[in-house]
Design brief:
about 575 residues, alpha+beta, Helix Hairpins, 10-stranded mixed sheet, disordered N terminus
Length: about 575
């Protein structure tokens, strides 16, 4: 079997990897890039282009933003006096051209021009050359054999199809001749035997061909796996930085280049460990990046700045207010409705995507250089750790859930604000689950839920009575909530635990409806009752103890109120 050239598929064009880099200038120059080496001379339509020395331009510092990153590169070069052009790189082809900034940190050196040049060199459709590895030659031979066996398989399937059609025609002729009284037994038997023999022979060849194809596919798969593990394809799109600098005198010069890149972001993450009344909180930054180059030993800084947001004030529009007389029906009745309202605090809500920084840009530097490969996976970079005292309590809101949860409160002693993010919870028994840490300012108190406890059970019952007061002028609704708390403890537990039980009472916003907590009928009396309508009891529960809590309040509405 003769070897025929195997056409190579040209590498795909990746110049449009990111919309931010769409305005970049792509130069199609057939040059092979050697990091830290030279680009060999090539022949161009205007003549021969001399070889250009390429100086490495490593990543030295990265500022990770919410949805992109600011990359800083530093290099020291020996410059000759006068104006000269330098080529630095390679660097990621995703660099945003309009954010490119190059500066010289050495007196007497000026950067006159800086631009990113991209080159894409598609491979020619040629078979492996003498410089290619034996794996590539073997893969080429296996592809040739596979194509030859595939063509043979198609021919055999076509021949078997013709033989099947011939057999059907012969059987139809036998049926028609027998019906017409023409009997040619000898010829019919000879033709049928020949067709059957041909079908059996070619069927056997088809089975052998399929077996060889399966074996070739298995060998080709093994060769591809070995090739992927042994060799790496070079990038099709390579970017370099062309700098035009002016030096007053010969000597070393330090150059700093910075630019934005997409496909790189970060999010905060935490790990909380609770042991003997102390909480250890470890802060980390989870980084993902697929910019096409690794960040090796770079100084990382994490910022919550949102550079993509427009910085223009909102437009002012007129707000027209009008007064009108109330109708007779509106004077006669007061429409009210019972609605659920979440008690919120200042700052972004949980619905805001991205990083919650409390409305102020936060900058968190990593204490040590880190390496982040360009693989698109999550990589954790430590930011800091602190240990402080923690207050633990068991809390329950029976209206929302019958579970009793362990809540830990502590003070932020990290020296910087804690951004909102997921937290891994660890206590004496090991990993217990994941929670959410809210945004916490420096020195502020916050709380974490360490999950529910199986040793407690809460049952809630409600009762409602309707009555009238003041000769039918007001309707009174009395609601009674009964809570039954039980503790199931093992023989080794002997201490008493306080369970903070919270219930809520409606809060009226109109004078026609009054809500009153009947403390004299509550058993026991509430320990706290705030303006948001939250009633709290601190219920002590010993091992195997059971307690009952009763809440009574009334809603009084005038006869004009409708909707309750």
């Amino acid at each position: 079997m003769t070897d025929t050239p195997l056409p190579r598929t040209p590498a795909p064009d990746r110049t449009a990897l990111d919309p931010a880099a769409a305005d970049a200038t792509a130069v199609n120059a057939p040059a092979e890039t050697v990091p830290g080496g030279t680009v060999p001379a090539v022949t161009a339509p205007g003549g021969t282009v001399p070889a250009v020395t390429v100086h490495p331009l490593p990543v030295t510092a990265v500022t990770c933003l919410e949805d992109r990153s600011q990359v800083e590169r530093t290099v020291t070069l020996e410059l000759a006096p006068g104006i000269q052009r330098l080529r630095l790189g390679p660097l990621t082809a995703l660099a945003v051209d309009r954010t490119l900034r190059a500066e010289a940190d050495t007196p007497g050196v000026r950067v006159l021009d800086a631009r990113i040049v991209r080159a894409w060199t598609p491979r020619a459709p040629l078979p492996p050359g003498p410089d290619d590895s034996e794996l590539r030659h073997r893969l080429h031979r296996l592809d040739e054999h596979t194509r030859a066996e595939g063509r043979l398989l198609e021919r055999l399937e076509a021949r078997l199809g013709l033989l099947a059609q011939l057999s059907a025609d012969l059987l139809r002729e036998v049926g028609e001749g027998a019906g017409a009284g023409e009997v040619e037994r000898t010829r019919w038997a000879r033709e049928l035997a020949r067709v059957d023999a041909e079908r059996e022979r070619y069927g056997e060849e088809l089975r052998a061909t399929r077996s060889r194809l399966r074996e070739l596919e298995e060998q080709r798969s093994q060769a591809l796996t070995a090739l992927d593990q042994a060799e790496e394809q070079p990038a099709e799109l390579v970017a370099h930085l062309d700098l035009t600098v002016e030096a007053a005198a010969a000597g070393p010069a330090r150059l700093t280049v910075s630019h934005l890149v997409p496909c790189a972001l970060w999010r905060p993450s935490y790990r909380a460990t609770l042991t003997d009344g102390e909480l250890r909180l470890e802060s980390e930054a989870v980084v993902w990046q697929r910019t096409g180059e690794d960040w090796t030993g770079a100084r990382l800084t994490f910022s919550t700045a949102r550079s993509a947001l427009a910085a223009e004030p909102p437009a002012l529009v007129e707000d027209l207010l009008m007064l009108r007389e109330r109708t007779t029906e509106e004077r006669r009745t007061v429409d009210v409705e019972l609605r659920e309202e979440e008690v919120s605090t200042l700052g972004p809500t949980g619905a805001v995507p991205g990083v919650d920084d409390g409305g102020e840009v936060r900058v968190l530097p990593a204490p040590a250089p880190a390496t982040v490969p360009s693989d698109g996976r999550a990589h954790r970079v430590p930011l800091g750790t602190f240990t402080g005292p923690a207050r633990s309590e068991y809390a329950c809101a029976p209206e929302l859930s019958p579970l009793v949860t362990q809540v830990v409160r502590f003070r932020n002693a990290a020296g910087h604000a804690l951004l909102a993010g997921p937290v891994e919870l660890v206590r004496g028994s090991g990993f217990t689950g994941r929670g959410e840490l809210p945004f916490t300012a420096t020195g502020a108190d916050t709380e974490l839920s360490f999950g529910s406890s199986d040793g407690y059970r809460v049952v809630r019952e409600t009762e409602e009575r309707q009555s009238t007061a003041g000769l039918g002028q007001r309707s009174v609704t009395t609601r009674t909530v009964r809570l039954y708390l039980s503790r199931f403890s093992g023989p080794e537990e002997r201490d008493e635990q306080l369970v903070a039980v919270r219930e809520r009472v409606p809060v009226s916003e109109v004078s026609a409806v009054e809500v009153r907590l009947r403390k004299e009928e509550c058993s026991p009396a509430p320990d706290a009752f705030d303006s948001e309508g939250i009633v709290r009891w601190d219920v002590p529960l010993g091992p195997g103890a059971r307690r009952a809590v009763t809440l009574v309040y009334e809603i009084s509405a005038s006869a004009k109120v409708a909707g309750l």
